[in-house]
Specification:
Length: about 550
């Protein structure tokens, strides 16, 4: 069996678009850790206030978690839900509002009930049944009738009742509920007794349609929350993911906030755009969100340091033999930086983890102990076929971009490549009527590579200065400006414009234009040049090439 990089037995990175429960137990990144601590602090604080006390409407908390898609909001919500300390003290219902349609009160309420774990529902059923059993000393007749106890059952006492409870939980017997209200009425309301019956008879969600109003839903949620605290000694958390500005969502959440359900915590997870829309659609709800007990913004979760820490955390979690050394960490950090710097579209938690999941699979197939640049390059080309580089005027495909980037890093050839690309680009613009009288004789003047006339008849000189050494760059540009006595305008194409040199043209005007070309424009030029030399310039490419020429002041 092939191992994964760094000697891992399994691929450490999640592969699904949304987090699974197992993956969510791993949490990396300073921003996410601070958010976690804030939410845990809120829960712990409320729990401590309710120790042995009857909750009031003051014992309600509201938390908002805000950031863009792919920032790890859902992962954080799942992580909080699965923390051992939280499981011991809370019952959590997670609701993905994106999956609730239509969002009427019945569907939302049904989703809330479905959001509770099977274990929490089973624990509540069990505790309710034993709660009724424990009434045997005071209401023995009703207990025995409720649990269908005969004469022989009465002789064995509590052992028989315990067995009856387990049989009911297994579905092998049923509770005779007509006698249950007598056992419950002193401790629970009528609404709660109805919910208890639905719960014990395992038809809690099928009874949703009986509720006629939003007020009825809120009363039911309050009743469930109260039972969780009374029987399980746990707070109730309602996590609403993908909360947005739809009217039904806003009305429902406003009702929950206004109700101040005792011993409950409401966590709303949304994007900044949704937050702005809520402000426009319902200022009243927005005002309540602004006054949340905790406003958690995951801004910064897409920074290089944060993403690196998250990726490292997954590896360390599965690194049983401590093979992921500091040396390997430094190497991998460089690879992460490469992806981060060159592919802005992947600068979020979800995209980065997806890339490194597939890269780990590729490394395992190749038997590579590390994630090297070649594996990451091949991975990006394979999982994003046909994707284009954002910001590229020439619409460069990812697969070509990676090769071009490697060539662009060659200091010995890059200036010659750019000079050739500019010549070919000007040749193309001449065919299209944008420039005239091209002259590629660089002996015209020192530092001058190309001259031509623009559409107004002015004589333009081009100097290509792509040099990493600042002193050489300055010297080249300085030499080029001396040509202004024979031309009307000088355009210097450079990757280093720390100092702008002037100069006076033969018309007495200071007309030196310094065009600082970033990596995107340099790669666009190289990509164009490759297509031009292959005679592969199509109509769309022609239009883009003219735009490229305009962007670097050639015409």
């Amino acid at each position: 069996m092939n191992l994964y990089p760094y000697g891992l037995k399994i691929n450490p990175f999640p592969s699904s678009p949304t987090p699974s429960y197992a993956d969510s137990q791993i949490l990396g990144g300073r921003i996410h850790s601070e958010a976690k601590e804030a939410i845990v602090s809120c829960i712990s604080d409320l729990y401590s206030k309710l120790d042995g006390k009857k909750p009031t409407d003051r014992d309600f908390r509201l938390i908002t978690v805000i950031q863009d898609v792919g920032s790890g909001k859902t992962h954080l919500a799942y992580h909080i839900k699965g923390l051992p300390d939280i499981i011991n003290n809370t019952v959590t219902s997670y609701i993905d509002l994106a999956q609730v349609s239509p969002r009427d009160i019945h569907n939302i309420y049904d989703s809330i009930l479905g959001g509770f774990s099977a274990n929490d529902i089973e624990s509540l059923r069990r505790n309710l049944l034993y709660f009724m059993c424990n009434k045997v000393n005071h209401s023995g007749k009703y207990v025995r009738k409720a649990f269908n106890c005969g004469i022989l059952d009465s002789l064995s006492g509590n052992k028989s009742l315990n067995r009856k409870v387990e049989d009911i939980l297994k579905g092998e017997q049923k509770l005779n509920f007509q006698y249950a209200p007598e056992l419950l009425c002193s401790d629970f309301s009528e609404i709660q007794i109805d919910i208890i019956r639905s719960l014990i008879e395992d038809r809690l969600r099928s009874d949703v349609s009986k509720i006629r109003s939003l007020e009825g839903v809120i009363n039911s949620l309050s009743s469930i929350t109260d039972m969780n605290l009374k029987l399980l000694k746990k707070l109730t958390i309602f996590e609403f993911d993908e909360f947005d500005s739809k009217k039904d969502s806003l009305d429902f959440i406003k009702a929950i906030i206004n109700a101040h359900i005792p011993s409950a915590i409401l966590i709303l997870i949304l994007t900044p755009s949704a937050y702005d829309e809520i402000k426009k659609e319902n200022p009243s709800v927005f005002d309540r969100l602004e006054k949340a007990n905790y406003k958690i913004d995951l801004a910064g979760s897409n920074t290089l340091s944060e993403l690196t820490d998250i990726i490292f955390e997954y590896i360390k979690h599965y690194d049983e033999n401590n093979l992921f050394s500091s040396e390997y960490a430094v190497q991998l950090e460089g690879k992460i930086k490469f992806v981060y710097d060159e592919f802005p579209d992947f600068r979020n938690v979800r995209s980065m983890l997806n890339i490194f999941y597939h890269a780990s699979e590729e490394a395992s197939r190749k038997g590579s102990f590390i994630l090297d640049e070649l594996i990451i390059d091949d991975t990006i080309k394979r999982i994003y076929p046909g994707s284009k580089i954002r910001g590229s005027l020439m619409n460069i495909p990812l697969s070509d971009f990676i090769k071009l980037k490697q060539n662009a890093n060659n200091a010995e050839t890059i200036e010659l490549d750019i000079r050739e690309a500019v010549r070919n680009l000007l040749t193309l613009t001449k065919y299209e009527g944008y420039v005239n009288d091209l002259n590629f004789d660089n002996s015209i003047a020192e530092g001058l590579d190309i001259t031509y006339n623009d559409s107004y008849g002015s004589k333009i000189g081009i100097s290509v200065v792509i040099n990493d050494e600042l002193t050489k760059t300055q010297a080249q540009i300085s030499n080029a400006t001396k040509s202004l006595n024979i031309i009307d305008k000088l355009v210097v194409l450079t990757g280093n414009s720390h100092r702008i040199f002037g100069g006076t043209s033969r018309n007495g005007n200071s007309l030196t234009t310094i065009v600082n070309m970033d990596n995107a424009r340099i790669l666009d030029l190289i990509y164009f040049n490759n297509k031009y030399k292959k005679q592969d310039i199509l109509k769309d490419d022609l239009e883009r090439a003219i735009t490229l020429a305009h962007s670097i002041k050639l015409c």
